[in-house]
Design brief:
Elements (H helix, E strand, L loop, with lengths): L1 H27 L6 H19 L5 H27 L6 H23 L13 E4 L2 E4 H4 L1 H18 L1 H11 L1 H6 L4 H23 L11 H14 L4 H21 L2 H4 L2 H12 L14
Amino acid sequence: MEIIILGATRGALYSVIAVGFVLVFSVGGILNLAHGTYYMLGAYMTYIFYSLVFQGSSTAWLLLSIICAIGVVALFSCLVYSILLRKHVESLTYVMVMTLALALFVSEIMALLFGVSGSSVPSLIEGSASILSVKVLNQQLLLLPMALVILPSLWFFLKKTRMGQGIDAVAQQRDGAILMGVNADRALIVTYGLSASMAATAGVMVAPISSVVPEMWLFPLIKAFAIAILGGMGSILGAVIASFLLGYAEVFTCFMFSEHLSEMVALVLIVLVLVFRPSGILGKKDRMNR
């Protein structure tokens, strides 16, 4: 029962992280190595707003800090795209090198400003709950409704709104979408901001559970990369399925063997999928599954 519950919460967290990573690759072919940076900034910005700006001591102030944190990260990501990536977005090498450099730079800035010992953020709901004799932190349980709200909302946005349909059209066939009057550049910057917002939201939700440290950007990047490969690069549905597969695989490994081995599961999956099924679960043999 512990494996079922903890695997579900971990899979929910991974799905929000990975879907944002896959979405921006599907639409613009951007392999964003700074995706984990937005996760880290979501956590740090929540700490900054709550502890330093508002100096709050209530759940209302924490909620306001979370909203401000996600908004700041989204705005920052749009500036990054506009200033650093837009002119060279077609170059995969340039994008990878620039986003990796950005991740390392921001990590060093955070270490300089806040140190490496870690900062803390309070939980939205303190305490823990017992589910079928399994004790789980309330903050951890919030990861499930987070995913259940974000993922269907993303589907509705992409399928039912004008902007979302434009983004979906660019993902399916960029040239055809442009001929139909879709502004591909605007669709991509919105997608990039949306992807960063999802990463930031995941970081905000994890911040009370784990310490907020500069190196935390690497964890979501490795997970998102492994999930994208396992699910099929460009497949959002594949990313959701792979997120829960990875979550359960890690929790199972942790219970059956050791916690240290569970951290290697994502790396092992990357190697196995690339060797035996490079297209992933729902991917195609071309560059991306649209």
